[in-house]
Amino acid sequence: MYGVYYYSFKLLIEFNAMPTLAIEIKNLTRYFETGKDTVKALDGVNLQIRTGELFGLLGSNGSGKTTLIKILCTLLYPTSGEAFVSGINVVKEPEKIRGKINMVAGEETSGYGILTVRENIWLFSQLYGIESGLAKKRIDALLKLLGLTKRAHTRIHKISTGERQKMNLCRGLVTDPDVLFLDEPTVGVDVNSGRTIRDYLLKWMKNNGKTVLLTTHNMVEAEEICDRVAIIDKGKILALDTPSNLKQMLNNEIILELETNIIKNLSLKYEFSKVDNHEKNTSNLRFLLKDESAVPDIISELSEKDVKIKSLYKSEPTLEDIFIKLVGRNINE
Amino acid sequence: MNNFERNLRAIYARAYVRIAGTNRELSWIFFTVFLPLLGISAYIYVYKATADPEILNSLLTRVIIGGATLAFWMNVLWGMGNTFYWEKEQGNLDLFFMAPISRTSILLGMALGGMFSTSVRALATIFLGALIFKISFTLESPLLLIATFLLTMIALYGLGMLFASLFLMYGRGSWHVTNLLQEPIFLLSGFYFPIKFLGFHIAFIASIIPLSLGLDSMNQLIGGNFAQEWALMPLKIELLALGILSVLFFYLAIKSLDYMENLAKKEGRLTLKYL
Fold first, then answer.
1. So what's the pLDDT on residue B269?
2. On chain B, which terminus has fewer CB atoms closer than 10 Å, C or N?
3. Backbone dihedral angles phi then psi of residue A66, each to the nearest 5 degrees
């Protein structure tokens, strides 16, 4: 009986001792000198990520996402400001953080081609001092969950991109980190592998109370799995909220989607994003409008430019619309 | 899990890559065992054709020992010195540097792993060289010889760690420096001739290279009267100097690793991808 009280009390103390913020960033800047120019990779970033949260950082190439992760992973010094992981300063006490974190990057080429998938993951687990037998048990379990068991004894120079990404994720998870940094983990991965990775990640987080900071280009991915999302551009956080709250920003606006024939170098009075579908030989034009009165204007302008409209409909706002509204361009541009 | 045990595991894991990797490409046996013999054969035939028969065996012993230790120098220069460069190119460096281990463990693991094939090469050169060219060794104090060899290796790998830290910051540049170092050090280390032939002053300066002193010491122990006569310094002084170099290179390497890592983090040169 006393044992139950003791362990309940111990658990309570441990729970209270856990920092509620997994990551805290205060006015962080990072500049890079590139010849004559200075690139502002991060420009006064402030961010708080709660323990147990899956936090998404959305930004186009060069927006500062990777720089932020590198700083948090103790691989890069900030120019100014402070960053904390599990309450520990990343610059002042990096050695205290390293055992608690891990990172997986998209299109990562790490590992040794001459070793097998299982050996490579084992190798990196040893850097964290995990007992070899335990590491191998964890590796086998992870490989099974991610559908890689058949490739366990294949040398990594023979595996596909999707398999490699799954292997990288196993490498990141085998050390059971408190905070996992995922830098575009599903980039270049097929739809099924991407889904497997996302599903497993959610399971892992739920069962263990872990924190994940995910950077991505993939808006659907962010919308689907992230608790909160920040939009970053030119080193600045432009917006931060839950995906549904962010979409509320466009409550008073209308999203108009048009399917047309493919027209190169199309410029119109109203701003729009355009995605070409070469298989169907169509373009999808997406307009963010203040009110419906602009619709006839758009149609007549398109007719004047010989654009053939195949379909037209109003749609729900997505994170991509928010991104375009805030940043002024598509995330892939 | 304490810090020491974690670092031991890291050393073992990094060494495993080299050992497993080597054994999976069996062609290494040919390259490691037979090709180096061709290199020393040239010197052996020149000495056989020209040297005084009284000193011939001593000279041939020197060639064999030089050929054997050359493998370690190549491992230090190309393997260890460029370790961080290779790891960076391969995308492993950031994973090593964000792990809770000492940077020295990565290098030690690399060195120990590399020593596997290097030791096979060295032993093959000694045994096959002695067998084929009928060379006899005068081995009076095998324990002292082993101790001298180990001391030389400690100093040499300390120098390798220093190179590794210096090359941490420089990508392709380190490649050129390595090339630049290779040939002059072949000459200054006296792999195949008594270094004293270069004149005392040049030989004395060259003795900052642990191999020069190590080879000279080992030759004193194994090469008979001629080797002792042409020794750079008395054995005790050379061993003392090797001990000092071991401590000095390790100290400088650790300081330099710290400094270079900080500089690389400041300038953003630790990883390939940024922004």
1. 82
2. N
3. -65, -40
